[in-house]
Design a protein that fits this description.
The complex is a heterodimer of chains A (240) and B (549). With 240 residues, chain A is α+β, with helices and mostly antiparallel strands. Chain A has helices at 3-8, 29-35, 106-110, 122-126, 133-141, 145-152, 160-164, 171-185, 191-201, 206-214, 217-226; strands at residues 11-16, 19-24, 55-60, 67-70, 80-84. Among the domains of chain A are: 3-84, Roll (Ubiquitin-like (UB roll)); 106-185, Orthogonal Bundle (Fumarate Reductase Iron-sulfur Protein, Chain B, domain 2), CATH 1.10.1060.10. Chain A is 38% helix and 11% strand. In chain A, α5 (133-141) crosses α8 and α6 packs across α8. By secondary structure, chain B is α/β, with parallel strands linked by helices. Chain B folds into two domains: 9-48 and 326-438, Succinate dehydrogenase/fumarate reductase flavoprotein, catalytic domain (Flavocytochrome C3, Chain A, domain 1), CATH 3.90.700.10; 79-322 and 442-510, FAD/NAD(P)-binding domain, CATH 3.50.50. In chain B, a hairpin with a 5-residue loop joins β16 and β17. Chain B starts with 8 loop residues before the first helix and ends with a helix. The chains are: A alpha+beta (240), B alpha/beta (549). At the A-B interface, α2, α8, α9, α10 and α11 of A face α5, α6, α7, α8 and α14 of B.
Chain lengths: 240, 549
């Protein structure tokens, strides 16, 4: 960037793995690293806070505390020391969801280390989604799949909790298992879905679809325009 | 620059107007456009309808057909490798089934191929980033399936084909709508958790261009919830996966069947030769090409690699002349420009309004029509401008809390709430600013209903394939697409592989002849593809954020 342009833009200094770079104020950590010249292979996935690829550990100048963040969802600050986690070598158990007995505490059986939780709350503090991680580990010890599900539902599996945990718990794998158990065994398939599957199997809609498939474009457009549209609540009606 | 709860003083003035009109608007309806009015606004304002932004491709199976410059640039580029660069006699991986791409479609294909007789060790997944780093993970709003008594697959069919401008391939639409309820049941059996009411029925919401409420969601983490579960299942079955190792070229055998691929380990910079009886292409779309300089909702790896490889191998592409711009990408603050604001925000009642607080469009038009209407409003000078020169329409999110009660946003749109909160904005109290953003590749590699491409041995599922959505995809049909056609690709590939012996001599001759065609067309060798990763170093990370209208 030209000096002139840089003068127009407020620049700050960040330390990427210890090396100082000047970057424009207001970028995310991820974009600031790219501006500095890094080309990600690891460490960049969805770039929107959903995939957990850009788990970042940082420290602010003058502080001793290590903080955690997602590089794509955090604005860069002057004096940040930045490092990214390329990979989390966490322990994951294999299982057959069909063979599990949800009445037992499957979580404790597969991940007995959850019982070592010392309630230090470091996992919760590390979570970039601000989930109550320690609370769901406590719920896991009790085998409360429903509570684990609701507390962990927004987990993006970045692994920051795991690398900070003094009890070597792999929180996000425990939560994944709990959610699948809850989804499969405690949240039954709605009857209206089963009814529809039966109708499809019996070929109830086949002739109607066959007719639509054969229709010429003009006729199809007529049928499309004439179809009734379910009212959107709150008085807003299509076509009015 | 002084900010008041995340917004500038000028923006605050406009927000006051939005608040003033809210009570009146809550009672109001806005008419949907007629087909003629739709055409008019599309023709004048939709980015796809600007002829100078596209050109005809000069080589290959679709010679003479137009696509955006950014796409043609890659189709007409020279390969990264030729036969001289790799030793095809040394087979590094010898499998029944190669799956290229580790997103939703690839994962579903692997599970169904495994269910249909291909053992885990005879499958190999190769993916450019991590397994699950894909647009599948990012889909928020939901998945369509016609499963209520007042709905039907035939009606779903009609919505899809109308939304797609009647250009869809009928057999694919039929497969999509008829498989949809089955896919939901499969998800349930795996343990995917969808939102249900107190009676255990699905909570279903409207989407743009749908005539019934048939959108099933898992808060606004629908894509993530499905992807996490299918990936977990994939891991349980111990199917091998190579991460950070994209395919760079397909391989063929002596009879012209696709017979594997050349992979490139981006970390060690080594090439691997994979021999496979069947290959599934599940590489996703072109959302990171920043077509017409638009910002994007897409993940880092959406660079059309699969299109390029399949095209060189002789696969027919279709509907690549249209691009889906999602009407509601974030336009402010700067850090999140282009990121997806799920259609569910409108589905739950938030209206799009201009800088004066006026409602100017039916909120649930098909995506292309809604996006064009937003752009028109900005062209008419009725948009809000951000400090960095972006334009935007207000999405009146506080309406959701008024309609569905306090807490409705945290309950249903927690990802959105969280994202805005990170940058100092509370969407339960203030509206959010949006503008169309590059979202989806409507077309792609042509397949038939069994997910077979025009080349034997090559199957495709997910965003890389084309035909099912015609010229415009409806909301909630991409998650459905990758499940339906990922599954069909996995089953078809398993059937194909089980009937065949190991492919013979592997060859890149198709790439050599493609290069000859490029030379004959006098296309200079200045560009290479597949792109693999977009270039954002230095100023390139900034430029696109500043130049949009």
């Amino acid at each position: 960037m030209s000096k002139e342009k840089e003068n127009d833009m407020k620049m700050i200094t960040v330390y990427i793995m210890g090396k100082a770079y000047k970057v424009p104020f207001g970028l995310t950590i991820m974009k600031a690293m790219e501006y500095a010249g890094y080309r990600f292979i690891r460490g960049s996935g969805c770039r929107a806070g959903f995939c957990g690829a850009c788990a970042t550990v940082y420290r602010r100048k003058g502080e001793y505390k290590l903080r955690t963040a997602l590089a794509c969802q955090t604005t860069v600050e002057d004096g940040m020391y930045l490092a990214q986690l390329p990979f989390v070598p966490s322990n994951r158990k294999e299982y057959d969801i069909e063979e599990l007995d949800p009445k037992k505490n499957v979580l404790s059986e597969y991940y007995p280390e959850i019982n070592r939780c010392v309630s230090c709350n470091t996992c919760t503090k590390a979570c970039p989604q601000e989930l109550q991680v320690m609370d769901y580990i406590q719920a896991s010890i009790r085998g409360d799949y429903k509570l684990v599900t609701s507390l962990s539902f927004d987990c993006i599996q970045c692994g920051l909790c795991v690398v900070r945990c003094p009890a070597e718990i792999t929180h996000y794998h425990v939560a994944q298992l709990a959610r699948r158990l809850y989804g499969k065994y405690y949240s039954p398939v709605p009857q209206h879905l089963l009814d529809r599957l039966k109708e499809i199997e019996e070929g109830k809609f086949d002739s109607e679809i066959e007719e639509l498939k054969k229709m010429d474009a003009k006729k199809l457009e007529e049928v499309y325009v004439a179809r009734d549209i379910q009212k959107i609540p709150r008085g807003e009606v299509a076509g009015e | 620059m002084k900010l008041i709860d995340g917004y500038t003083e000028e923006m605050r003035e406009s927000i006051e107007k939005v608040e003033k009109t809210r009570a009146e608007r809550m009672k109001k309806s806005y008419p949907a456009l007629t087909m003629e009015e739709r055409e008019e606004v599309l023709n004048k304002y939709h980015p796809d309808y600007k002829p100078d932004k596209k050109r005809a491709v000069r080589v290959g199976p679709n010679k003479g057909e137009v696509a955006p410059h950014e796409v043609v640039d890659l189709l007409e580029a020279y390969p990264l490798i030729t036969a001289k660069d790799v030793d095809l006699k040394t087979i590094d991986y010898d499998v029944d089934l190669l799956i290229i791409g580790g997103g939703g479609a690839g994962t579903v294909a692997a599970l169904w191929a495994n269910d249909n007789g291909i053992s885990a060790e005879n499958i190999l997944m190769a993916t450019k980033l991590r397994h699950g780093d894909a647009n599948s993970m990012m889909a928020q709003g939901g998945i369509q399936a016609a499963d209520t008594p007042e709905d039907s697959p035939a009606r779903h069919y009609l919505d899809v084909i109308g939304g797609g401008h009647f250009a869809n391939k009928p057999e694919l639409v039929e497969a999509l709508v008829k498989d949809a309820p089955f896919i939901l049941k499969w998800h349930e059996e795996l343990g995917v958790i969808y939102d249900k009411d107190e009676n255990g029925n699905y909570i279903e919401r409207p989407g743009g261009g749908t005539s019934r409420f048939r959108l099933h969601s898992a808060k606004d983490y629908t894509g993530m919830e499905i992807m996490r579960v299918i990936r977990d299942e994939f891991r349980n079955r111990q199917i091998p996966v190579l991460e950070f190792t994209p395919a760079v070229e397909l391989l063929k055998d002596e009879s012209g069947n696709v017979a594997g691929a050349v992979l490139f380990n981006m970390e060690t910079e080594q090439y691997y030769t994979v021999r496979a009886k069947a290959t599934v292409l599940a590489t996703g779309g072109f959302g990171r090409l920043h077509i017409q300089q638009f910002p994007t909702t897409n993940h880092y790896g959406a660079t059309a690699d699969g299109l390029v490889m399949a095209y060189r191998a002789g696969a027919k592409l279709r509907d690549l002349d249209t691009v889906q711009y999602h009407p509601t990408g974030a336009a402010y603050p700067e850090q999140i420009v282009g990121l997806l604001i799920t259609e569910k925000v409108r589905g739950m009642g938030a209206q799009p309004v201009d800088k004066n607080g006026d409602l100017f469009v039916f909120p649930m038009e098909p995506r292309d029509v809604e996006a064009a209407s937003f752009i028109k409003r900005c062209a008419d000078g009725k948009c809000v401008q951000t400090p960095t020169g972006m334009h935007g329409i207000w999405l009146d999110s506080p309406m959701i809390e008024e309609i569905e009660g306090e807490g409705a946003i945290r309950k249903n749109l927690d990802a959105m709430y969280r994202m805005y909160k990170r940058f100092g904005i509370d969407m339960t109290k203030d509206p959010i600013l949006v503008f169309p953003t590059l979202h989806y590749q409507n077309g792609g590699v042509e397949i038939d209903a069994s997910a077979q491409t025009s080349i034997p041995g090559l199957f495709a599922g997910g965003e890389v394939e084309g035909g099912v959505h015609g010229k415009n995809r409806l909301m909630g049909n991409s998650l459905l697409d990758y499940n339906v056609f990922g599954r069909r690709a996995g089953i078809s590939a398993a059937q194909w592989a089980s009937k065949r012996s190991k492919p013979g001599k592997l060859s890149l001759a198709h790439v050599d002849s493609f290069v000859k065609e490029l030379e004959k067309a006098k296309i200079p060798p200045e560009r290479r593809s597949p792109m693999l990763l977009p270039e954002y170093r230095g100023e390139k990370v900034l430029a696109r954020m500043l130049d949009i209208l």
